[in-house]
Amino acid sequence: MFLSEKCMMNCQAILLFHLLALSCLLCGVYGSNLDTDDNDFAEFEDFQDEAFEETAPISPPQAEVKQDFDDMNVAEDDFDDGVTIEVEDWDEFEGSPNKKEEPKITFAQVPHHLRPNWDSFVLELLILAGLVVYFINFFLGRSKNQRITSMWLEVNRTVLDENFSLIGDDGKLDIENPGFIKDAEHLYSLWCSGRVCCEGMLVELKLLKRQDLVSIIQYMLKPKEDTIQMTVKLDDMDSFVMCLAKKKVASVFSKDMTDISTYCPERKSAEKLNVPSNYLLMSEIGEASTALIDQRVVSFLNKYPEVIESIHISDQYSGNKVPEEGAALTRLPSTEKVVIVTLSLCGRNLEESIEASKLVTNLVLHLVDKASRLRLTREAKVKAEKNRQKVEEAFLKNTHALRAEAAAAKREEKRRLEKERILAEEDPEKQRKWEEKEAKKEAKRKAPKMKQMKVRA
Fewer CB within 10 Å, N- or C-terminus of the chain? Predict the structure, then answer.
């Protein structure tokens, strides 16, 4: 049975609540034991004092010391006459009985690491509980995304089989997995091919990162939705660029998309096409947008106003803009003829949105057929051709200026290296000649250019 979005969010909220409750409980236990365990080494101090009181200083008996000293003395009668034995005082030697130090007993201060409570492991328990909650959420979120993917393919399988001969190409000679390719735990892609008027269709499921607990917390603060993007590459279409998108999406497209920001950056209201007021229209050729946004598209947008995020049809699609700080382009970027439709799966009605995605798939194929068969009037074709020529001329002018700057920088670098070489030779005559040569070049460059004309009498 498909797990709803609401149940999923409730499970994640319960996990977070249990983690917070465990943290509060451990902190309470830790605080209650502070008064009773202020001095963990008090037992050792008492034990040490009692041990010192019971133990008296130990000294060797005097009789034994004297006996040992007499044994070490040598009598003079044991030797022959004429031999003198000098007996030295043993007190002068270190280690004699008279200077023997009294032994001392010391007790090692061993910490009491095995305690009768768990207050010392609060941090470890919190980390362990966090890891348990994270992994539980990981497996639940991953399985939820997999179920969404399987459900979408099951709902749209009939439509795809009717319109495409190959579904789920994995790039291998012998297809092993005829279905979605998992690019990440929240990203899935499906390639379909074998249809007239187009090269193929790429379906991309960009789901929420349900497997990531940090992302789940972010979604609670800033909600997001699952999105599905269908990109169809056309074989042929007339020259025009148009986009119908929601207001937030339209503002992003007009700044980031290369074709829209170049050919139709102006955002206009689409109410004249009888679509909901939350959509804006960006169109290069007016008659193209009027022909494509027909009654079928309008009725779907009015019935499901929150499903479709954008409809982008272009013959100059090249993706997002290249950053200005990036490398300078030496030629115009390659373009494609595409129909791109993006829809969102509303979290509250996820099952209804997936069911509606079947209608969206049919709508995409309808737009593909209309865009490939649409033929503009002569005036519209001339206008589109002029727009593309202006873009190409502006690009060539920009690249020419960049090439001129690069050539000037190269000449200056060559002149600097030559000057360093002349100065390194320490030959005044060569240096003088080089300076005169450079002065003549500079004067010739600054002199006004004049054209000589011969006049015959």
Answer: C
pLDDT per residue as tens, the chain (457 positions): 444 555 555 566 666 666 666 666 555 544 444 444 444 444 444 444 444 444 444 444 444 444 444 444 444 444 444 444 444 444 444 444 555 567 777 766 656 555 556 677 788 888 999 899 999 999 999 999 999 999 999 999 999 999 998 888 776 766 667 788 888 888 999 999 888 888 889 999 999 998 888 888 888 888 888 899 999 999 889 999 999 999 889 999 988 898 898 898 888 888 888 888 889 999 999 889 899 999 999 999 998 888 899 999 999 998 888 765 544 566 778 889 999 999 988 755 677 778 888 889 999 999 999 999 999 999 999 999 999 988 888 888 877 777 777 777 888 888 888 878 877 777 777 777 778 888 777 777 776 766 666 666 6
Report the distance separating Cα 200 and Cα 424, nearest Å: 65
Cα–Cα distance, 260 to 423 (Å, whole number): 56
Q: Would residue 72 be called left, alpha or beta, if left means φ above 0 and alpha means ψ between -120 and 50 degrees?
A: alpha
Q: How far is CA 125 from CA 11, 25, 435, in A?
A: 21, 11, 80
Q: Where do the DSSP E strands lie in 116-255?
A: 166-167, 181-184, 187-195, 198-206, 226-234, 241-246
Q: Is 45 left (phi over 0), alpha (psi -120 to 50) or beta?
A: alpha
**Whole-number Cα distances in Å, 20 to 26, 32, 129, 133:** 10, 19, 10, 11
Which one, of 339, 319, 134, 83, lies nearest residue 231 by Cα?
Answer: 339
What CA–CA distance (Å, rounded) separates 192 from 232?
Answer: 9
Q: What distance lies between CA 128 and its chain's CA centroid?
A: 26
The CA distance from 234 to 315, in Å, is 9
R_g (Cα) of the chain, nearest Å: 45
Residue 308 pairs with which residues in a beta bridge? Answer: 343
Helices (H), 164-225: 213-221
Q: Give the distance between the most distant pair of CA atoms in the chain.
A: 160
Burial string for 166-203 (b: 16+ CB within 10 Å, else e) reads ebbbeeeeeeeeeebebeebbebebbbeebeebeebbb
Residue with tokens 């803009």: 321
Q: Are 65 and 97 in contact (CB under 8 A)?
A: yes
Bridge-partner residues for 283, per DSSP?
242
